[in-house]
Amino acid sequence: MTEQAPQFALWLPVSLGLGVALWFVLPSPGLWIAALGAFGAIAAGGSALGGRVGRLALWFGLVAAIGLALVWMRAERVAAPRLDRPVTTSVTGKVERVERLVGRGVTRITLVDEGEHPGLRVRVSFPDSDAAAVQSGARISLRARLMPPAPASVPGGYEFARLAWFKGIGATGRGFGEPRTLSPPSGGFWAWLDRVRGRLTAHVQISVGDAEGGVAASFVTGDQGGVPDDVAQALRDSGLTHLLSISGLHVTAVVGFVMIATRRLLALSMHAATHWHLSLIGAIAAAGAGVGYSLLAGGEVPTVRSCIAALLVLLGLALGREAITLRLVAAGAFMILLILPEALIGASFQLSFAAVTAIVALHEVPWVRERLMRREEPWWAAFLRLLAGLLLTGIVVEAALAPIGLYHFNRMGAYGAFANIIAIPLTTFVIMPLEAVALLLDPLGLAGPVWLLVKWTLSLLIALAEWTATLPGGVTLAPAMPQAAFGLMVAGGLWLVLWRGWTRLAGVVPFMAGAMWAWVSPVPDILITGVGRHVGVVANGKVHLLRTRTGDYVRDLMSGVTAAPDIMPLQDSRFARCGRDSCVADIWKHGRRLRLLATRSSVFIDRRRFEPACADADIVVSDRRLPYWCAPRWLKADRTLLQRTGGLAIDTSTGVVRSVAEENGRHPWAHRRIGRQPQ
């Protein structure tokens, strides 16, 4: 226990995160209160016990209870007006944010309505050509078809309603025509900063051009809207998508460049070199650059985490202390969870801290540090040592990120460690310095050749991503992972990196248990979206869709949740018979037949034909309300039922039916409607 004493502080953010995670996992206020009571009992028991173990129990219970209470209070504090049904309406208000998604040809505008629905924050999408003149801070009027924030379409899908709740977004939709500007942009630091960010993003995209321009802009401002979908997918599949999100790599490059440049420039003066504390001045300048860069990049979680870490590193360097430690990472995580506890469940937070924690923990292992330490040796040996260090770090980071990628995105790149050996030095030492030089030369009109070099180097980066993603076995798909399985893997991983000595290997047990649980979890046989319009039947490694005309979003959703890469129409399968208005599918599993009847049009179906078809089916699915006389043997998933349950996932072999409503429980985004609703 004495050996672990220096590590105990590292478990404080873990305890805080456990409390936050339990609030999201437990479905109802009664269970949240019970969890608070349990944590309080642990803390009280630890206080009564005394000694080191007692103090540990006291702090664990106290901090975990604080985490649960913090996120509960924040969920109540951010409550804002929301729509409860679709509506076509006019919206008038001041623009809070403009996001130009050049890769999709869309501009997203966020504003708070001052007209028919006062206080309602809406996010509306327009074609680029219609919203080209809209700027942050301007007061505008627009017409739009608005919808309530969408819950997950099927169990295990993306829960936008939860994200919208914490962002205060009460409606989303598409606009009609061009927004009308009522007054030009006015005061406000954040609106001004958003306009600067938008102009800089557009300038970089135009200067570089094509897909490379979108990637270049993401390095400068963090705006990924100009990255085409195919390039973004290639970067994800090759393990390079972290390059698009401004985080440790980018902030470190900026902070390091400013600190070194400041010290070198001041050292040119004999007076400054002999009378001033150049390290302290360089650290202050670098801190200012890091904060400014983070603000310009939009203040997303990876950027804030990296900025906090950079500031702590600079403070350590200024004080002559070893700065890059697990305590620094823990302090950054603790600070972010205190301010934004909901960040814990986001892929951005998890990927960012998992990568940094794995890197620091690896290089704190004595035998690793000893073998990778610089020493007097030939240049080629030093290069091979550096290459081995990069490869080992890449493999460890990929292992740390794999469960998170599979849980959130249902896919993982297999060769990310090797691609990063080239991509990280190329980005850090070539692309970003070239972009900095180009921006400095822009006012002089001399940046053209440098922007051309930026484009060429980014072409190499994109080519590397596309080649890596297309290698045999380059992408691993996995169906939606149970939360408990993911939790076991996270617990095992934390034990592996935070515990000391050989007993840390005990973390392998829960990690492998979670991995096996995820591996053997059954894939649902039938997926039904929340409105009953789309149905997917999983058979023979393929997803068979009810409707022949289905958008990419639904196709990607069905493929991701089931890990089935092939999509085909249900009417083309051998086990289904489809007409214009409905399909009947016979699903065989473990020697048992289950009959599915699904409607796929709004045309009236005669009772004389439909009633016996219902009686002959085990499951009936429809996006309309079905009459009482439609009585299947097992489940009638019509509009009436789906309005209560949301999307469904059905395992025909076990009879288990999971619903989106069950996953959301009684969390506020699942049932709360606050403020005046449209008439």
UniProtKB/TrEMBL annotation:
Q: Name one GO cellular component term.
A: plasma membrane
Could you tell me the superkingdom of the organism this chain comes from?
Bacteria
Q: Which Pfam families match?
A: Competence (PF03772), DUF4131 (PF13567)
Segments crossing the lipid bilayer: 7-25, 31-49, 56-75, 243-266, 278-296, 302-319, 326-345, 351-368, 380-406, 412-432, 444-464, 484-502
Q: Does the keyword Cell membrane apply?
A: yes
- UniProt membrane topology term: Multi-pass membrane protein
Q: Where in the cell is it found?
A: Cell membrane
Primary residence: membrane
**Domain DUF4131 intervals:** 29-176
Keyword annotations for this protein, in alphabetical order, are: Cell membrane, Membrane, Transmembrane, Transmembrane helix
Tell me where in this chain the ComEC/Rec2-related protein domain is found.
Answer: 220-501
InterPro entries per UniProt: ComEC_N (IPR004477), Competence_DNA_uptake (IPR052159), DUF4131 (IPR025405)
From the Swiss-Prot or TrEMBL record, give the protein name. Answer: Competence protein ComEC
Give the organism the record lists: Tardibacter chloracetimidivorans
Q: What is the lineage of its organism?
A: Bacteria, Pseudomonadati, Pseudomonadota, Alphaproteobacteria, Sphingomonadales
